[in-house]
Here is the input.
Amino acid sequence: MIEQITSIFSSFWGIFSFSFIVALTGAMAPGPLLTYTIIQAAQEKRSGYLVGVFVIIGHALVEMILILFMLLGFSYIVENQAVIKGIGVIGGGVLVLFGVTLVKDLIKGNISTEFLNAPRDMDNGCIPLKNKGASHTILGGAMVSMSNPYWWIWWATIGLAFMTQINVSLKNWPHLAVFFIGHEAGDLAWYLLISMLAFWGIRYLNKKVYYGILGICGAFMIFFGIYLGMSPLFFLS
Here is the structure.
């Protein structure tokens, strides 16, 4: 029975499906990357529905590097508690700074609301994001991902164990490719949906509600930063 289950998971379709489901389940949990995606999509004047794509591109790039890093034999580094604690403190500080900056901009009224209640014909135009905005969101997706110490812990434990079970290695590159594509597809499915809902939904709100939503997101970002920065110090021993 166990051998049959293992053989199913070891098939290309099994690897893709299981990797997709695991990633989708994790992506649906509230966290700093989800909050960041909502904030970025809500603030985009045009094509904010694509923000989820750019966020996951940045997220996928750092995950690709981390996976290769572990497969080359350096997994012991990301399993080191001192490293995790350091990442937690530094990453938590970055998230707090991001949240505080957003709240300050809201208080000063520096966030534009010209796009609110825009005509429907303006919304329907498939105008791509500017290169600067896209690259900024890709970088943000990478930085917010790396700032979360529990992202590192997940890959050092669950992720590494899963790759070992299905024989993912540099030599067995087909398994590696299917595993990676399935994982990122799961993330993309959820974050693209979130950015679409945030972008199209926010455009029919008034300024007070819009600022209120961003304020809540900023507060959550500060909370996540404090929690992620402090919890590794107390719960890892």
